[in-house]
Amino acid sequence: MSQEIELNCSVRDDLGKGASRRLRRLNDSIPAILYGGKKDPLSLTIAHKDIAKATENEAFFSQIISLNVDSKKEKAVIKALQRHPAKPFILHADFLRVSDKQAITVRVPIHFLNEEKCVGVKIGGGNILKTLNEIEISCLPKDLPEYLEVDMVEVELGASVHISDITLPEGVTSIALSVGEENDLAVASVQAPRGVAEDEGDAESASGEEASDSGGDPSDSPENS
């Protein structure tokens, strides 16, 4: 189950780019917007230190967030976060309202287990290559998992783990798989070290050359004597 994250907010009446700059500069706060549902969009102000601390938690980007707007609570998920291109500052946040009775689409992080005990690594000497670190899912807010687990312990050298191999909690579906099996992407694979793979390739090439050389010169055939 997901954990609850809270942020204190206040309604913002002073709108526009100039007002947003003043807000960041004078109050050390950021502008935000809450939209969706059957309510009008709501312009908000959030203390920068509060949202900066919240974003340190991986769950902030995939879990239900309780926005304490003055004396009311709004359940939402983060949909966009604008950061300064050169400084460690958050500039703006977009939140989407959620309803307990309506499914939401969220990207949930993947946690990889037993990487050091992986058969392909421990016995095969391979390396784990992670191609996805999150997947997009759909579920009701109450069923939203904090993360999904991928156990690498039995993955052999040269094998891959796909989205379809991930055990999803009840009530949770994969967006990719709901579109079609062709979207069953690899999440991680165990590959041989580059040097080993190159050596094997060179050995195969050399074997091919030897086989070709052993055929002899056609001009030496008795038919051509």
What does this structure look like?
The protein is α+β, with helices and mostly antiparallel strands and 225 residues long. The chain has two domains: 5-98, Ribosomal Protein L25, Chain P (Beta Barrel); 105-196, RNA Polymerase Alpha Subunit, Chain A, domain 2. It has five helices and 13 strands. The strands form three sheets. Strands 1-3-2-6-5-4 form a six-stranded mixed β-barrel. The chain has a four-stranded mixed sheet with strand order 10-7-9-12. The longest helix has 20 residues, at 194-213. Mean pLDDT is 85; it is low at 221-225.
Our Rg estimate from Cα atoms comes to: 27 Å
Classification by helices and strands: alpha+beta
Work out the strand percent.
35-45%
- Principal-axes geometry comes out as elongated
Mean pLDDT: 85
The SSE string, one letter per element, is EHEEHEEEEHEEEEEHEH
Q: Could you outline the blueprint of secondary structure elements for this entry?
A:
Layout: E1 5-11, H1 17-27, E2 29-35, E3 42-47, H2 48-54, E4 65-69, E5 72-83, E6 90-97, E7 104-113, H3 119-122, E8 127-130, E9 134-139, E10 148-151, E11 160-162, E12 173-174, H4 175-179, E13 186-191, H5 194-213
Parallel strand pairs: 1-4, 2-6, 7-10
Antiparallel strand pairs: 1-3, 2-3, 4-5, 5-6, 7-9, 8-13, 9-12, 11-13
